[in-house]
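dumping this here so i dont lose it
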């Protein structure tokens, strides 16, 4: 299935009714999109993915073999690495029906979940957080946190552009400055002198 405003590979299954696929979105090989899914503009859904009745924001990149089950929400510009795992029930049993107990899992704007990471049901991953490959996320993750290990633990802070922040909390890539206050990261106003210098250097 393909339309002028988005592309779905012939092997992909996009079911209706009530399904929305945004403009410039690409859905690749062997993807299954369930009825009622909402996928924003400019997204990429890699091969072998399953998309339940969920909301996926604009500009998201979902790598191969990721299943996004009912109860999971992705805000804009989320990156999901290959084969990362979401759950939607906290205490699953094959012989116990729990479809009415789906927990809400939220991945906030700009966050990254690394390859083969597992996100437990009911977790919120804050804006621009970075979940390392193979991590097991068992608790809420604050914005900009870099989380690794099993169970996941914060080991650093990340800039919105993705770089791990050094001790002086000034990004080496984009120059943005931050401060840690009460266990959370705060984005500081731009340094006018640095901005002027960078403008002159660019010109």
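and the seq i came up w/
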């Amino acid at each position: 299935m393909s339309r002028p405003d988005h592309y779905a590979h012939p092997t992909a299954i996009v079911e209706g009714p009530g399904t929305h696929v945004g403009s410039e979105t690409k859905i690749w090989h062997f993807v299954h999109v369930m009825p009622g899914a909402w996928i924003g503009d400019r997204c990429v859904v890699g091969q072998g993915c399953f998309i339940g009745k969920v909301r996926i924001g604009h500009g998201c990149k979902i790598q191969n073999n990721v299943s996004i089950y009912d109860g999971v929400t992705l805000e804009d510009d989320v990156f999901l690495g290959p084969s990362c795992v979401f759950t939607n029930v906290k205490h699953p049993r094959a012989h116990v029906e729990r479809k009415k107990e789906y927990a809400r899992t939220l991945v906030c704007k700009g966050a990254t979940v690394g390859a083969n990471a597992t996100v437990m049901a009911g977790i919120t991953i804050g804006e621009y957080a970075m979940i390392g490959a193979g991590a097991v996320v068992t608790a809420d993750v604050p914005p900009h946190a870099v989380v690794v290990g099993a169970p996941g633990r914060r080991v650093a802070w990340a800039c919105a552009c993705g770089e791990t922040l050094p001790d002086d909390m000034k990004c080496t890539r984009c120059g943005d400055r931050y401060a840690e206050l009460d266990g959370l990261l705060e984005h500081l106003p731009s340094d006018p002198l640095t901005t002027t210098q960078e403008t002159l250097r660019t010109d």
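The first strand starts at residue 2 and ends at 3.
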